[in-house]
Amino acid sequence: MNILDKIVLRKKIEIEERKRSISYNQLEKTLFFSQNSISLKDSINSKSLSIIAEHKRKSPSKSEINFSTPSNEIIKGYEDAGAAAISVLTDSYFFGGSNEDLNFAKKNSTIPILRKEFIIDEFQIIESKSIGADAVLLIASILNENEIINLSRLAKENNLDVLIEVHTLEELKKSLNENIDLIGVNNRNLKTFKVDLENSINICNQIPENFTKISESGLNSINDLRILIECGFDGFLIGEQFMREKDPGSKLKELINSY
Fold first, then answer.
1. CATH 3.20.20.60 fits domain 3-22+32-257
2. DSSP codes, 28-93
């Protein structure tokens, strides 16, 4: 069983536990559920260098990344540095995140908040809206075509932008539908966690122009970003490069200023 299989297996158990502790009706009565979302796609398309900066404490590939910097410093630092959006990991067991992290980010920022989670159930879409997400991540490698259609439709019905993450051309093909706003090409193979930047380059030209294109993972320098912008990418999701620093926001500002 690879890492991704283990994550999904545990996620199924977590979802059933969550369903027993809180109902759909309770989720829909939360403060954020009735509020308008901020468009992730519009924010990405409004900047010359668009970075989705990530709040991530640990990962299966790197173990502990940063548990010392307070969330308020991370969130404020990212927004002040010019992030187009903030991605928040909400998986606890493998990534050290929580729904409270996302809720805090929403309360303390004015830019879009992306929930980065392993979404496999409609309950998680409603939950995402209830905790303050403006957009959700769907991962093509853990969903079939019908699941992608149904989950993305439900997200749009609840005013959430949808970023779908692909790693292969086969995953891209099954992910193209009218409810998808952004397509992210993950340079990290989630089954092995190995990184290859060429993956974005190879897939970019196959993405239809009506989708906003995001390159994810393994982006370590401004030269990487320049190459990918030339290929046609509109934005980038970067986490570990920033979170390894005591002051993640200053690292983001340094990257943006060097462009």
1. no
2. HTSGGGGSPPPPHHHHHHTSSS-EEEEE-SEETTTEE--SSS-HHHHHHHHHHHT-SEEEEE--ST
